[in-house]
């Protein structure tokens, strides 16, 4: 993965500075009479339901539980990341995408312990060792999950597979989930093939 490290750096917005870190209790008590702040806290899920029970020894703030490829008219291709060896098999067992097909990715994840600020998905795709794309998608900020909302789901922007004889073939990719603090929550290598048909 070290060959991709320089590619997997999130772009920065000039002048943006991540806010001061606060505990969950501090966010809940923050300016209780401020209507707009209360709406923002509700949009994060800070005031909804009983906290989800989590293993106190699991210090991860964000646990990506599954990834899926959605293609109109086809069943989702789902990768259960809680299954043993799920990540290891992604690079050695490429999946097929039909050339020109429209698709979108979807991530399911759990946030625990504290508010997660500015979660982003980074992806670098290479073909025969040459970078052909670098993508970044902002997923947002999230409060820890509750019993009422045990997982978060985020659908990415729709994309279209390249088409034509030159586009067909094998591609290698590396993906990373990172937050505003540059904390990496998951990084993995995977591969896919662009073919004329499924």
Question: What does this protein look like?
Answer:
The chain is mostly beta strands. It is built from three helices and ten strands. It has helices at residues 24-29, 35-44, 88-92, and strands at 62-70, 77-80, 95-98, 102-111, 116-127, 130-142, 152-155, 159-160, 169-178, 184-195. The strands form two sheets. Strands 1, 2, 4, 7 and 8 form a five-stranded antiparallel sheet that branches. The two termini are 29 Å apart. The model has no long low-confidence stretch (mean pLDDT 86).
Secondary structure blueprint with pairings:
Layout: H1 24-29, H2 35-44, E1 62-70, E2 77-80, H3 88-92, E3 95-98, E4 102-111, E5 116-127, E6 130-142, E7 152-155, E8 159-160, E9 169-178, E10 184-195
Parallel strand pairs: 3-10
Antiparallel strand pairs: 1-2, 1-4, 4-7, 4-8, 5-6, 5-9, 9-10
Alpha-carbon distance between the termini? Answer: 29 Å
Percent helix: 10-25%
Biggest sheet layout: 5 strands, antiparallel
Compute the average pLDDT. Answer: 86
Structural category is: mainly beta
Number of strands: 10
Apparent shape: elongated
The number of distinct helices, counting runs of at least 4 residues, comes to 3
Spell the H/E element sequence: HHEEHEEEEEEEE
Sum up the structure in keywords.
five-stranded antiparallel sheet, 198 residues, 40% strand, single chain, 3 helices, five-stranded mixed sheet
How would you summarize this macromolecular structure in one to three sentences?
With 198 residues, this protein is mainly beta. The protein is built from three helices and ten strands. The model has no long low-confidence stretch (mean pLDDT 86).
